[in-house]
Amino acid sequence: MFVILAEGYFIYVLIGLIGFFYGGFLSNYPAITADYFGPKYVAFNYGIVLLGFGLGAVVSSYIAGYFKNLAATDIKLMWPAFIIAAAAAAVAIALICFVKPIRHKEEETSSAPAEAKAE
């Protein structure tokens, strides 16, 4: 969204921030995948996660490239690409609301006797 403000060296700061955040969270995905789906099939499940990540990267590159070609004369024409990216991020945030918290086996076994005692 800061594309209009990007003058001089500020564009390099923005590119650096994008690069920093892009790779910073990716190392957490294997552990999160194992927590949600279990360690038995973590390799397959993580492969599916990375497939979605790669597909999103390819599609977003084409979208950004299309609008970059349109904006060859005026950088303000890149605005729709950022709106599309913001909308995709908003959909992702909305989907996160439907993710159930992780319940570990220790929590299930420790809560079962407490429920039995309460009855």
Summarize the structure.
The chain is mainly α and 119 residues long.
Secondary structure layout:
Blueprint: H1 10-24, H2 29-37, H3 42-70, H4 79-96, H5 105-118
Account of the protein in words:
α2 (about 30-35) packs across α3 (about 40-70) and α3 packs antiparallel against α4. With about 120 residues, this protein is mainly alpha-helical. It has helices at about 10-25, 30-35, 40-70, 80-95, 105-119. About 70% of the residues lie in helices and about 0% in strands. About 0% of the residues are buried. It has a domain at about 75-119. The model has no long low-confidence stretch (mean pLDDT about 80).
Q: What is the CA-CA span between the terminal residues? A: 56 Å
Low-confidence stretches: none
The overall strand count is 0
Beta-strand portion reads under 5%
Give the overall silhouette. Answer: elongated
Largest sheet: none
Q: What structural category arises from helix and sheet content?
A: mainly alpha
